[in-house]
């Protein structure tokens, strides 16, 4: 008999190596202290998980917006992709056509043309009725000029050449600003200290070569010194560059930090699956708040823009175009959150979840039995898949989540594609596991 166990010590618990048996009262006190320590430990985990969850919910919308702002400010390709549809939008084209037409017509002095025509007719002895009639040609002539100019401008603005020029101008302007804010010395416009300089070296080289080609051989001696022109000085340039560096850090690492805090909250919580559901639904709610805020912001923006400055349809097109990627990202995040919460629920003990899992298991078993009856078996591979089915399913789900994390600007379509793969691959694995050879009957 174990000397640390006696009939008077339920469960045979010892005193931790002190050499004597615990009495019933000591055993009860030990169990009470152990339960109290367990409760304190669980409470601490719940408290820590709650704090991490709150941080995740606060950082998630900030990370979403910061990523969008970083893409628009620092990524020239993304910016051009954002503004490119404006060149083809009918409302925006209408504004451009009207303003260009008015500006061109304003440069035409119709009154002077009418006065010159009247003077010419009078000097050449035209009948008085004709001379007087020419004075009333101002309005028809202005209308004719306006029609001709508007027709010409419309053809230009609605052409493919305008869209190409629009994209090219935006690309060059954005790249110039980015180079200036990042201190990159590529391009013609460069930042040096508190000055913005224009590098005219390429222009000087071209002019010198053209002069030499035209016969001015002494132009080859033009020196290479002083090839920059200072455009302006500003004490705010350093602050703008610091802001650009901060935006680069925040836009890149804030989403990673948010995801890490969310994963830590799930790990700290005693009930991991429940915390996954709570975190996913919480982030989904904050995403809905962002979408609602965008709707409110759109209404406020449209109400603040006077119709004389910008027509409502053009203002709406500009707002929707600039924010469409932010709206698309929010919708994608919302779909991911809902799918994550649904997946966590289906792995739980609920009646519906058990029914879905049972139905899927019966379907996979039926498909596997059909293959086995047809003479198709998976051999050792099927045995291995059956023994490690939970691991393989977890790896597939993890691979799908990693694909979405690494996907550059995922859309709802990308999420749907990953979802289909995550559903199909485990189903195939389950069928292959069910198609393993039947065990040999015992002798």
TrEMBL record:
Domain of life: Bacteria
Designated name of the protein: Integral membrane protein
Species whose genome carries this gene: Streptomyces griseorubiginosus
The keyword Membrane is assigned to this record: yes
UniProt biased composition (Gly residues): 9-19
Transmembrane segments: 46-69, 246-268, 274-297, 328-347, 391-407, 414-435
Keyword Transmembrane helix annotated: yes
Lineage per the UniProt record: Bacteria, Bacillati, Actinomycetota, Actinomycetes, Kitasatosporales
Alphabetical UniProt keywords: Membrane, Transmembrane, Transmembrane helix
């Amino acid at each position: 008999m174990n000397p640390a166990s006696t009939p008077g010590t339920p469960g045979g618990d010892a005193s931790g190596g002190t050499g004597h048996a615990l009495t019933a009262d000591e055993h009860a006190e030990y169990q009470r202290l152990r339960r109290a320590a367990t409760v304190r430990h669980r409470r601490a985990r719940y408290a820590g998980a709650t704090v991490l969850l709150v941080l995740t919910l606060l950082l998630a919308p900030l990370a979403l917006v910061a990523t969008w702002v970083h893409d628009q400010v620092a990524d020239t390709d993304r910016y051009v992709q954002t503004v490119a549809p404006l060149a083809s939008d009918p409302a925006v084209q209408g504004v451009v056509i009207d303003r260009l037409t008015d500006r061109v017509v304003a440069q035409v002095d119709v009154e002077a043309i009418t006065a010159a025509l009247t003077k010419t007719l009078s000097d050449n002895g035209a009948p008085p009725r004709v001379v007087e009639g020419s004075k009333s040609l101002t309005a028809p002539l202005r209308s004719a000029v306006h029609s001709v100019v508007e027709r010409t401008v419309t053809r230009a603005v609605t052409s493919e050449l305008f869209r190409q020029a629009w994209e090219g101008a935006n690309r060059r302007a954005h790249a110039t600003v980015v180079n200036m804010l990042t201190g990159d010395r590529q391009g013609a416009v460069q930042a040096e200290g508190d000055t913005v300089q224009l590098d005219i070296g390429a222009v000087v080289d071209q002019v010198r070569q053209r002069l030499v080609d035209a016969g001015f051989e002494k132009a080859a001696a033009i020196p290479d010194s002083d090839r920059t022109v200072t455009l302006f000085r500003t004490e705010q340039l350093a602050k703008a560059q610091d802001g650009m560096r901060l935006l680069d850090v925040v836009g890149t690492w804030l989403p990673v930090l948010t995801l890490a805090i969310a994963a830590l909250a799930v790990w700290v919580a005693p009930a991991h699956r429940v915390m996954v559901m709570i975190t996913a639904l919480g982030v989904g709610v904050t995403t809905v708040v962002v979408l609602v805020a965008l709707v409110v912001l759109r209404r406020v923006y449209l109400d603040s823009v006077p119709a004389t400055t910008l027509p409502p349809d053009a203002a709406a097109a500009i707002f929707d175009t600039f924010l469409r990627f932010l709206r698309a990202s929010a919708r994608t995040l919302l779909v991911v959150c809902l799918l994550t919460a649904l997946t966590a629920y289906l792995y739980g003990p609920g009646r519906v979840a058990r029914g879905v899992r049972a139905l899927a298991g019966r379907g996979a078993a039926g498909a596997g039995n059909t293959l086995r009856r047809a003479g198709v078996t998976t051999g050792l591979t099927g045995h291995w898949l059956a023994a490690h089915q939970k691991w393989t399913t977890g790896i597939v789900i993890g691979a799908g989540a990693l694909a979405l994390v690494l996907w550059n600007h995922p859309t709802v379509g990308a999420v749907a594609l990953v979802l289909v793969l995550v559903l199909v691959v485990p189903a195939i694995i389950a069928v292959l596991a069910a198609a393993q050879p039947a065990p040999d009957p015992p002798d």
